[in-house]
Every structure is written in C-alpha cells, then in structure tokens.
C-alpha cells in the first residue's frame, strides 16, 4: 500500500497508514443527483430560503443553543429520580465504559462516525443491536399484572414427635375430654356399622332363601274398645247354651245370665218341651265348657219369654241396655248356639224397631205377639233365647224368631237377614215379674180383630167383642176399625195387641176408631189376661 496520503471526505489529508493510530479510511464517492421534475419539485421540495430539513426551534438563542428546562421540584425528583445509592440507569453502560452511550472517546478527539459506532458497540456485550432494550425491532410482550404470579410453595413442615398409647392415656398429653369424645365416637361408629351389617345380612338372607313368598302381617292386632272382638270377649262368658232333653228327643237353644243369683233369660218355646207332660231336663253349658242343670222359674207364652236358674256361684252377668234408645242403622251383635254351635257371633244392624210380629205357636203354649226389634244379623235355629247386644256390649234384645223361605214353606229354613228379637225393655219387666211371682198378667181389651185398609188408612177391624169385657163396656161394636190406642197409631191386628199390652191392667186408655165412616173416640178400662 502506498505511503502517499489520500484525501478525506472533506478534502483533508488522511492519517498515514503506518502510524499505528487507526487504519486509513476512504472518503465517500460523490453522489450524482438526477434532475427532478419541476412539478414534483414545486410539490415536494423545500420552500425558498429553507436549507435544512429541520427548522431551528423558535425558542433557540441567537447562537443556536436551546435553553435547558428548569430543575424538577423535590417531589418530582423523589418520585421519578434515580435512587440515592447511585445505581446505574437504563442508559448507563457496564462498569469500565464511558459514562453514557454516545459519549466519544477522548483518544485523538477526531474519531470518525465508524470509530464511534465501534466504540459504542463495546459498551454492551454482543453490541447494542443484540440488546432487546436498545433494539427497536425487538417484540413487545405484555408482562403479567402484579400479584398474578404463582405463590411460592409453603415450606414443608417437619414431622412432630410421635405419641405412644401410654403417653396418650397417662402422659397428660391429651385432655380427658378429648379422650372421652373419641371413645363416644368410636362406640357410635361401631354401633352404626353393626346395624348396617345386621340389615345387610337380613336382606341378603331374604333374597337368597328359597321357598314361597310369605304375605306380610302385623305382629299384633289392635282391638280397641267397642270393636266386635272386644264386645264378644266381654259378653260370651254370660251366654249359655241350653240343651233340652225330653225322652229320646233333644233340642237346643240359648240364654243369657241377667242376675248374680244365677237367673237366665231365654225364650218360652226353648224350654216349653221340658215343662210339658213329658217333664224333660234342661242343662246349661257355659263358654268355659262347664255344665250345670237348669230349673224353670217361670214362663210367659204371650211374649215368648222364660226365666231359668242355674246353681253357679258368681256367674258373669250381662249388662242390660235400653231398647227404647235404639235407632235404625245401629250396629248390633247376635250371640248364641245356632244348630248347636255354641259361642257363635254374628253382626248386623238394626233394620227396624217396634215391628209387631205374631210368632209361630208351635212349641209355645200360647199365641205370642211381640213388638220386635228387627235386625239383619244372621239368626238361625238355636239362636233363640240368646242376647242381641249393641256396640257397647249391653243387651238390647232377646233373639226370638226368623223369617225365611223355608219357614214360609212350612220347613225349618235358614237366615235370610230377617231376624227378630224381644225388646229388652219389655223382656226385663217380664223377667222381674217372673222371678217375683212366677207369672205375668197382661192388659186385655176383650176383642178379636183383623187387619184392614181402605187404600188411604190402615187399621184393626173388630171381629167380635167379648161379652162383659173392657171393649163392650167402652161401647166398641163389631165392624169398628180401631186406628189409635193411647198415643200409638194402629196399622193392623197384631199392632193392636202390642199397643194394648204396653199398658197395665186397669189403665184407662182412649181409643180412636172409625164407625160407618165417622171418626169416634171412646175410653176403655183395660182388663187382665
């Protein structure tokens, strides 16, 4: 390379190549600028009088210097100034370099732009172009907000000392209350586990056991007071089965104990065969199976009632109710020995009250007419003389008769829901009189009558009048139709009989009648029969 110096960029001579200070540098080549179009120059060129791309600022001094801004206030300096420890800022180079980027080296003081670029590049390792803080093309990444960083993991806690059973129980390391609570919890958990195991085992055995499926049933049945089982259990000990034997023939019926002395109330037609010429025997069988002989105290064929006495100490006595308080629809229970089946219980309701009924005279000594209580409780031959009780267990009637297709045909038929009982109000009066005197006197009008109707009015027409009797004395004539006796309407001949028997002998009773189409009222003094 020649030692002849070459011109620099400004025409100044360059430095010799061999002085060891800096390598020789070539100046830039001259630039050739083509002529521009006058129209483009007028549109995009500088205005006249402007020689630079940047106009001097308006506040520049006469010498071109720019005034410096006043120093910041103390508050702004504390807020935005550098820390007091003199730490390096973002523009401060690493230790050992110049005080700030862009400062020139003091060597020779005439370095070219290329020298300054190389010197500035030494401020940062790898050069300023590789520093993302100085590289304008570096990508911008948003930093996470403060506090969103994952928290630091908690430090592992060291394991504490282990306690032995002796220290827990006797070392005062655990409170007694805590030990008691742990014991209760252990017992509770054990009990729950045992129950669960028991239920599981029971269910499993039920699922795996072979055999038929059994219907569920209650372990115990409730029999509240007033139920049929309760009433039957209380009344059955007072009901007896009567076996009547006359020669080689035997019959059966029922009865009920009405007095602690051993008096038994029954039907006259039940004991009538034993009181006749054959002089048969009567035996009473109680619900416990004991048998005792029974003696006839008295009978009343007109009401088909009889009283017996049995030699039993402290017998169970039935409670006596009031038939006058019965209403149609009341629940009733019939107890007796139908067809010899002792202790039979049937249930039903009161179908009618004050039902006049003429009984079959077969087996009885007279023509009995009763003012019956009608019921649909099953009553069959053998129930006669047994009690009809209400829902409280009190006797309200004495079962006496049935009506069925078999009896209408002349044979012995079964129950079809038409049963009849003597009202207990009348039966008690008759029984008391039989116990006192052995017989009963009934009121009598002294007429025979038949049932008649004209389509609008029913009554009992007088067929004949007994000479010298109460009816003859009152002026009753044959053909008169009796429509009322006392306060009771008369719908037929049987009702006339029961209406008269409601009164006592010697009572004066008004009698309303129709004679030849004209109403008439007479007063009769009842006689005795």
From TrEMBL:
<dbReference type="InterPro" id="IPR001940">
    <property type="entry name" value="Peptidase_S1C"/>
</dbReference>
<feature type="region of interest" description="Disordered">
    <location>
        <begin position="1"/>
        <end position="163"/>
    </location>
</feature>
<keyword id="KW-0378">Hydrolase</keyword>
<dbReference type="GO" id="GO:0006508">
    <property type="term" value="P:proteolysis"/>
</dbReference>
<comment type="similarity">
    <text>Belongs to the peptidase S1C family.</text>
</comment>
<dbReference type="InterPro" id="IPR051201">
    <property type="entry name" value="Chloro_Bact_Ser_Proteases"/>
</dbReference>
<dbReference type="Pfam" id="PF13365">
    <property type="entry name" value="Trypsin_2"/>
</dbReference>
<feature type="domain" description="PDZ">
    <location>
        <begin position="429"/>
        <end position="517"/>
    </location>
</feature>
<dbReference type="InterPro" id="IPR009003">
    <property type="entry name" value="Peptidase_S1_PA"/>
</dbReference>
<dbReference type="InterPro" id="IPR036034">
    <property type="entry name" value="PDZ_sf"/>
</dbReference>
<protein>
    <submittedName>
        <fullName>Serine protease Do-like HtrA</fullName>
        <ecNumber>3.4.21.107</ecNumber>
    </submittedName>
</protein>
<dbReference type="InterPro" id="IPR043504">
    <property type="entry name" value="Peptidase_S1_PA_chymotrypsin"/>
</dbReference>
<feature type="compositionally biased region" description="Low complexity">
    <location>
        <begin position="136"/>
        <end position="146"/>
    </location>
</feature>
<dbReference type="InterPro" id="IPR001478">
    <property type="entry name" value="PDZ"/>
</dbReference>
<keyword id="KW-0645">Protease</keyword>
<dbReference type="GO" id="GO:0004252">
    <property type="term" value="F:serine-type endopeptidase activity"/>
</dbReference>
<feature type="compositionally biased region" description="Low complexity">
    <location>
        <begin position="1"/>
        <end position="14"/>
    </location>
</feature>
<dbReference type="Pfam" id="PF13180">
    <property type="entry name" value="PDZ_2"/>
</dbReference>
<feature type="compositionally biased region" description="Basic and acidic residues">
    <location>
        <begin position="105"/>
        <end position="118"/>
    </location>
</feature>
């Amino acid at each position: 390379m020649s030692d002849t110096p070459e011109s620099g960029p400004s025409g100044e001579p360059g430095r010799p190549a061999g002085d060891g200070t800096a390598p020789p540098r070539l100046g830039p080549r001259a630039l050739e600028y083509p002529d521009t179009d006058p129209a483009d120059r007028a549109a995009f060129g500088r205005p006249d009088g402007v020689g630079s791309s940047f106009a001097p600022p308006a506040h520049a001094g006469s010498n071109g210097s720019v005034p410096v801004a006043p120093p910041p206030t103390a508050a702004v300096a504390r807020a935005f100034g550098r820390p007091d420890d003199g730490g390096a800022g973002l523009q401060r180079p690493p230790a050992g370099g110049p005080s700030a980027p862009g400062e020139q080296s003091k060597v020779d003081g005439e370095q070219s732009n290329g020298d300054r670029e190389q010197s500035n590049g030494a401020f940062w390792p790898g050069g300023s172009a590789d520093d993302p803080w100085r590289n304008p093309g570096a990508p911008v990444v948003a930093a996470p907000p403060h506090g969103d960083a994952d928290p630091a993991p908690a430090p592992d806690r060291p394991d504490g000392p282990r306690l032995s059973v002796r220290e827990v129980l006797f070392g005062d390391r655990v409170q007694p209350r805590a030990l008691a609570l742990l014991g209760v919890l252990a017992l509770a958990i054990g009990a729950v586990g045992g129950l669960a195991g028991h239920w599981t085992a029971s269910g499993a055995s039920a699922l795996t056991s072979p055999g038929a499926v059994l219907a569920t049933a209650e372990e115990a049945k409730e029999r509240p007071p007033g139920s049929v089982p309760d009433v039957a259990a209380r009344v059955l000990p007072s009901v007896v089965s009567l076996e009547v034997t006359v020669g080689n023939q035997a019959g059966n019926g029922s009865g009920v104990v009405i007095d602690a002395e051993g008096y038994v109330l029954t039907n006259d037609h039940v004991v009538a065969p034993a009181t006749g010429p054959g002089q048969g025997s009567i035996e009473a069988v109680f619900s416990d199976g004991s048998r005792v002989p029974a003696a006839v105290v008295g009978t009343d064929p007109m009401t088909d009632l009889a009283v017996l006495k049995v030699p039993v100490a402290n017998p169970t006595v039935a409670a006596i109710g009031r038939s006058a308080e019965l209403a149609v629809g009341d629940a009733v229970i019939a107890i007796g020995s139908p067809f010899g089946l002792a202790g039979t219980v049937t249930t039903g309701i009161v179908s009618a009250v004050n039902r006049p009924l003429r009984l079959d005279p077969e087996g009885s000594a007279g023509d009995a007419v009763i003012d019956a209580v009608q019921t649909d409780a099953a009553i069959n031959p053998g129930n006669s003389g047994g009690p009809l009780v209400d829902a409280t267990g009190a006797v309200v009637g004495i079962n006496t008769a049935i009506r069925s297709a078999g009896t209408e045909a002349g044979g012995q038929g079964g129950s079809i829901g038409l049963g009849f009982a003597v009202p207990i109000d009348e039966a008690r009066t008759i029984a008391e009189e039989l116990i006192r005197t052995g017989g009963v006197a009934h009121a009598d009008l002294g007429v025979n009558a038949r049932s008649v109707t004209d389509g609008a009015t029913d009554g009992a027409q007088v067929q004949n009048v007994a000479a010298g009797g109460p009816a003859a004395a009152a002026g009753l004539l044959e053909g008169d139709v009796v429509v009322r006796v006392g306060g009771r309407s008369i719908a037929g001949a049987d009702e006339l009989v029961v209406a008269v028997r409601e009164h006592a002998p010697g009572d004066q009773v008004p009698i309303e009648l129709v004679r030849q189409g004209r109403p008439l009222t007479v007063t009769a003094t009842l006689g005795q029969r």
